[in-house]
Amino acid sequence: MQKLLLLHGALGCSAGFDPLKIELASTCECHSLDFKGHGGSEVPESFTIEKFAGEVLAYLNANAIEKIFIFGYSMGGYVGLYLAAYFPDRVEKLFTLATKLRWNPEIAAKETAFLIPKVVMEKIPKYAAALQSLHGDQWESLMEKTATMLLELGKNPAISVED
Q1: Has residue 162 been placed in a domain?
Q2: 3-state secondary structure of 38
């Protein structure tokens, strides 16, 4: 049976794929993981696409998976693209949805303008509550570290259009 790895987006977690995993169970062996700082795990000092890719490689190694199909949503798709560019021997095929490929300082500033926990709590309290439900009390730190990562990505994209 073909193996498929589902990679969540920024501020998401693997639990978001549970309904999809149920639907696909008869056709493939589905895997998913929470990137560090997501799904209630401790938020590390910083995030990078390279670190997230390293987490995927560690997961594949720990599960004795040489090569896998990857579906990545948003940031998960960007991690998948990074893996396909720099570790093509580990990626059978890659599918992405809502993944932003082009990053520069202007795009990063626009994307991070909405990643301010205090504003989210005031303007969209239901979203803040949902994030707290997914990630625990550290959701604010997760959001801030994600914004910092995206701003850095705007200065130094992890992959290029040429990749």
Answers
A1: no
A2: coil
pTM, to two decimals: 0.96
What are the tens digits of pLDDT across the range 35-93? 999 999 999 999 999 999 999 999 999 999 999 999 999 999 999 999 999 999 999 99
Within a domain: residue 144?
Answer: yes
Among candidates 3, 5, 1, 2, which has minimal Cα distance to 95?
A: 5
Number of structural domains found in the chain: 1
User: Using CA atoms, how far apart are residues 18 and 23, in angstroms rounded to an integer?
Assistant: 9
Query: Where residue 69 sits, what CATH number does that domain have?
Result: 3.40.50.1820
DSSP of 13-82, one letter per residue? -GGGGHHHHHHHTTTSEEEE-PPTTSTTSPPPS---HHHHHHHHHHHHHHTT-SSEEEEEETHHHHHHHH
Closest CA to 7 of 66, 44, 59: 59
Interval 129-149 mean pLDDT: 97
The residue segments making up the domain with residue 15 are 3-155
Q: Is 161 part of any domain?
A: no
Helices then strands (H, E): number in the chain?
7, 4
- Cα 49 to its chain centre, rounded Å, is 8
Look at residue 160 and tell me if it is in a domain.
no
